[in-house]
Amino acid sequence: MKIYLAILGVSLIAHTAFSGSLVGVGLLLAQPETNGQVKVMQIVPDSPASEAGIKVGCWLISVDGTPTRGMTLSNCVYRIRGVPGTEVVLGVVDPKLHRTNEVTLKRAAIHFKAPPVHPSKVLPSTNNDP
After folding, report:
1. Domains (ranges, CATH) in the chain?
2. DSSP-assigned beta bridge partners for residue 80
3. What is the CA radius of gyration of the chain?
4. In the chain, which stretches have pLDDT less than 70?
5. pLDDT tens across 56-91, in order?
6. Which residues does residue 59 pair with via DSSP β-bridges, in sequence order?
7. Contacts of 98 (CB under 8 A, 6+ apart)
């Protein structure tokens, strides 16, 4: 099963050495090919998502009322990111508790350092850059 990862709009595969800050809510998301749903893979500590109690393993089912099923991961991340201090409403399913919640988060600058990726795990470039 292939999984696509994105953190706050930056692909970890494409930007393996990226660190810094972006505006968002502090979620590392994945979209397994098998079902097209968006899954929470990691939470940035001290972020709006961690403070709201969103857990790893939860499914993101909507962003501001728009269902995420069939949405590309990049579109989902684009909708979550925004201007610092503005709100975004996420529909979240916790599969362990069999509970669905709508969570209102305030976007903020998220500071992080991307984890190192072993060179053998990096995909080859699709452009013709040397």
Report:
1. 3-111 (2.30.42.10)
2. none
3. 15
4. 1-21, 34, 112-130
5. 999 999 999 999 988 888 899 899 988 999 999 999
6. 39, 93
7. none
